[in-house]
Amino acid sequence: MKERLVLKLGKYRLDLSALVFLLGITGILLIGLSSWLPEGGPREEAGALETDARAYAQGLEERLAAILQEMEGVGKAKVMVTLENGYQKVYARSEKTNNDLLEDVRAGDEKKTQEKQVTEQTYVLVDGAGGKVPLVTVQLEPEVKGVVVVCEGGGDPLVAGKVVDTVRVALNISSARVSVSRLAGGSG
Questions:
Q1: 3.20.20.70, 3.40.1180.10, 3.30.300.30, 3.90.1260.10: which CATH number matches 41-87+141-182?
Q2: What distance lies between CA 158 and its chain's CA centroid?
Q3: pTM for this structure?
């Protein structure tokens, strides 16, 4: 005679083999449903792009500070760069246009023409690590919003003018987006 294991839950009695079977079916269903759930890909990618943008700004700050400190009269310099936005991606798109022309000819030389144009745009998808992902054609660098330079020679108008010109040319921004001030305790 075969002995059966039974689990009692309140007034319910459940055979352990049936419980194992139900748990197995539940596991299979959860695995099947997980393919329908959104993955963390786009959010992780956005976080990586934001980190990259901060690193980009920091790199600009370091390079600008290094070049400015080499200029005559500038002395020690600290630079802060602010960005308008982070990296931007441009995705490949496919466009399909459908033109329909409908002519309605009625008695008495009456002619009615109707034209309908439908354009459908879709992103080009390629196989990626997490399934289908849009194809990136271009990744645009962040746009510089403004630059603040604090340097020992910032109180001298000639030095400040040279600093503004250098930053303007290096980053291809308007001089209105560049501010130069004297470093506290600096000469000039």
A1: 3.30.300.30
A2: 40
A3: 0.57
